[in-house]
Structure formats: C-alpha cells, structure tokens
Design brief:
The chain is mostly beta strands and about 210 residues long. The protein is built from one helix and 16 strands. The chain is globular, with a radius of gyration of 15 Å. Residues about 1-5 and about 200-205 have low confidence and may be disordered.
Length: about 210
C-alpha cells in the first residue's frame, strides 16, 4: 500500500494554459525546509511533477537536497543532464545525481536516454527508487538508463550524509548557497515514500 507524503499544487502562473510556480533560472527557488518528514526515507520513494521548460541547459536542479558543508558538500538532485554518456553528447535528458559530504566514496549519477527534453511544452517527470536502483519516467515512459558517473545505487533522500541539509524546488542548496537554478514552470510536486513505478499520468491534470 502506497503512503502519500506531500503534494504541492501551485497556481501562481497561468498564462500558458494551466498553473504552476514560474522560476526565472537566475535566482528563484522555493525553500521546502530543513527537516521534512520525508528527509529520512532511504529504502524507496518517488518524486513526480509537471514541468514546462522556458529554456533548458544541463545540471539544472528541479528538486534537490543539499547542505552547508564546504568544500565538496553533498547533494541529492533530480535534474537535467547533458553528458556524452547520455546520448553521445547531444540533447538534454532527465537525471539524478547523489553524493555525500566530501564526495566520498563516490559521486553517483544517471540519466535517461529515451526522451530528449525540449522547451515550450509540459512534461510529466518522475524519479523512483526501489532501494537498490533508480528509474526515470518522462510522460509515463520508462527511460533507458545510462550511468554517467559511479553507479545506479538508488540512493534516496536519507542515504547520503549531508550536513545542515534542506530541500529546495527550482534550484539546489549546496555549500551554504543556492545554485543550479532552473528556468521552468513547476506544478503538482508529489512525493511518496514508496516506489510508484509506472503508475503515472501523461496529460496535465491527471
């Protein structure tokens, strides 16, 4: 039985057909707090949201966890990726990166290689973990996975050791500062402490 943890339905920007939080890609973010109930989850989970890309680049964080440790502070980030191992170096794809403070023993990161992301349209994006491996979904389609660094560990929020951590939407908090800003509109952020697999809608509002 799945356990619902958090849903944020944002209706702050509605000029392109439906509503969401509009991030400018420069300095906008939403601080989701330092100790949410889902922070300690480490066995499995799901993050899903609707995203509209105004512009798109690599390593922009849609949802993440970071902290105050410096240098080489830890991060868990659901983000965009453009990397040679994703698809021969062309296109922007969905990805996850996870590593603890000091970045040891390893930085682990994956990207999906099935669906390249483009600007000017809504996507339903999701990341899941079964406790041992991540999966990525774009509009309900399970993405082929490429490991661009480390391995596909399935690390969830409670796995990497991150000092002074907080969760953010539209950017990531890392080494006591915000960075990796996204130029996007985000709606319907939903977080579960169970692996939801491919039970995902493919149209806005489903």
């Amino acid at each position: 039985m799945r356990k619902f943890i958090l849903t944020i339905l944002a209706c702050l920007m509605c000029s392109i057909g439906w509503c969401g939080i509009d991030f400018d890609g420069t300095d906008d973010y939403v601080d989701l707090g330092a100790s949410p109930t889902y922070d300690t989850d480490s066995s499995s989970g799901t993050v899903m949201m609707w995203v509209y890309f105004d512009t798109i680049a690599s390593a922009e964080s849609l949802f993440g966890k970071g902290g105050t440790f410096s240098p080489d502070g830890g991060v868990w980030s659901f983000q965009t990726r453009n990397h040679a191992s994703c698809n021969g170096g062309s296109g922007i794809f969905l990805g996850i990166v996870s590593f603890p403070d000091t970045q040891l023993p390893a930085i682990n990161g994956i990207c999906g290689t099935t669906t390249a992301l483009t600007t000017g349209q809504w996507y339903h994006l999701a990341a899941t973990s079964n406790g041992t491996a991540w999966s990525l979904y774009v509009n309900g389609t399970n993405q082929s996975i490429s490991v661009w660094t480390g391995s596909n560990t399935g690390d969830w929020f409670g796995d990497p050791t991150i000092t002074g951590s907080k969760f953010t939407l539209g950017a990531v908090f890392n080494e006591n500062a915000y960075d990796a800003f996204s130029d996007v509109i985000i709606s319907d952020l939903t977080i579960y402490n169970t692996n939801q697999n491919n039970t995902l809608g493919t149209e806005p509002g489903t």
